[in-house]
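During the practical work, I worked with a single protein chain and the tokens that describe its fold, as given directly below.
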Amino acid sequence: MHSTRLFLSRRFSVFASVFIYFLATSFLVLVLTATASYGQTAALATPRVLGPVNESQVTTVEGNTLPLAKARFDGGRVPDSMPTGHMLMALRR
């Protein structure tokens, strides 16, 4: 009976060591990735628009509209008190 307790305590000790190693490694990875992404600034971002926009060359990109964002699914006006949750508003020029 004594050898069984010793065996179980060694198994638990190995399990605890592996678990603590896993937690420490996970914490380290989390801290390093969080600090790396926190330091990004607008000065490091490369501009995507490299020159003036030529209005004669503007085109509509197909496939950027959600399937439910169509006139046939429009439910009409809603009261001002209705919560909207997440909303993204796109305006045209």
